[in-house]
Every structure is written in C-alpha cells, then in structure tokens.
Specification:
The chain is about 45% helix and about 15% strand.
Length: about 200
C-alpha cells in the first residue's frame, strides 16, 4: 500500500499470456468503467500499460501532481484518472495520453491503480477490487498476478523512452554504472518531464 497526499493507493499487476484483441481491450475498459461505478464513491480504478510507467516513484509523483491540480483548480481533465494519465504521458491532450499510457493490443503487462479518497481509506491494505478475479471473469488469460506491489519497473523500456523522447545519449550523461542505476536515472528523468506539464498549462 502507498500513501499519496493522504490518499491510499493500491497497485496490482499481471502479465498477459497472449496479446489482447481490440475487442478484449474495449471489453476490459468498458467493464472496468462499470465496476468503478459499483465501488465506493470517489474510488478511482485506473488501468495502465505497465511498460508506459517508469516505476512507483513516477506513478506516485503523477498522482500527486494530479491531486494538486484539482485542489488548485488548474486541472485539464474533468476526472482525476484522466488527469493522472496526462501527467504520466507528459502531454495535455487526453486522447493522446490514453494512446500513450493506456492499454492496447500491444500491451504485455497490465497495471491497475486503485485510488481511495481520504475519507475511504481502509485500515488494512486489502484491495477493495480483485483485479485477478475481474480478468478471470472476462476469460483473459494471465500469470504473475501481484496485489499491493510496493515497487515495479517496465519489462521493456522501449515504449517509455519513446513517450518521453529519451535516448541513450541523454541517459548516459548521468553516468549510470549498473542496470539498476540506469532504471533510477530513467525514472528521475521521466518524473521531471511529467512535472513540466505544470508549466504548459
């Protein structure tokens, strides 16, 4: 369980056993939208392509930026989940953000973010929504289902680097010595790019 601006954040992930069809993508999103309506008020269910998010620091920073923009009434989107996607993608157009960080037929791993309002925080960290059960009901084959993860990184950085226009030359300027240092460097650069969205409003 994570806490961002006094909101509880529960992150789950799964690896798909085979690529999603266009129909499956639509079905998942449609059913998740309906499921969110049955959750407690102001609970957000946000589904992302795991390879489009640099890690937990990036995710938490973008949630913070989005919550702050609603508090300061500088938000671009009407809903908090869309605002979070704008920051994750570092763009101002919602349709473009969905294409960049949302799920598609090219998605290999899914990341589900549950954001609970301050007043709805649970005393324990048990997810209020069982993502594995949800996918099983839709007959989506998956493996490696993880609830309440504390940390994650993309399996493949290609998409993330393309979204944020990062290349090896820029990353190497920070002299990462190990694979882990490289991940940390990339995540810091991506968080900085997401933060720049504030200046573009």
């Amino acid at each position: 369980m994570q806490i961002v601006d006094d909101h509880q954040v529960i992150v789950s992930s799964v690896r798909l056993l085979k690529p999603l069809s266009s129909k499956q993508v639509t079905t998942i999103i449609s059913n998740l939208t309906q499921e969110q309506k049955h959750q407690e008020p102001v609970t957000v269910l946000l589904l992302l392509d795991k390879d489009a998010v640099a890690g937990m620091l990036h995710l938490k920073a973008c949630i913070h930026f989005a919550l702050r923009s609603f508090t300061q009434q500088t938000n671009i989107a009407k809903k908090i989940d869309a605002e979070i996607m704008l920051y994750l993608a570092g763009v101002r157009q919602i349709n473009k953000a969905i294409l960049l960080v949302g799920i598609s037929e090219k998605t290999h791993e899914l990341l589900l973010v549950q954001l609970l309002a301050k007043t709805l925080r649970k005393k324990d960290s048990t997810p209020t929504f069982d993502f594995g059960q949800f996918l099983t009901a839709l007959k989506i084959p998956f493996e490696n289902y993880q609830n309440n993860i504390d940390n994650f990184h993309p399996q493949d950085y290609t998409r993330l680097l393309a979204i944020h226009h990062l290349d090896d030359a820029l990353i190497d300027l920070f002299s990462p010595q190990t694979a882990n240092e490289r991940k940390v460097t990339i995540e810091k650069l991506v968080v900085e790019k997401s933060a720049l969205l504030e200046l573009q409003k």
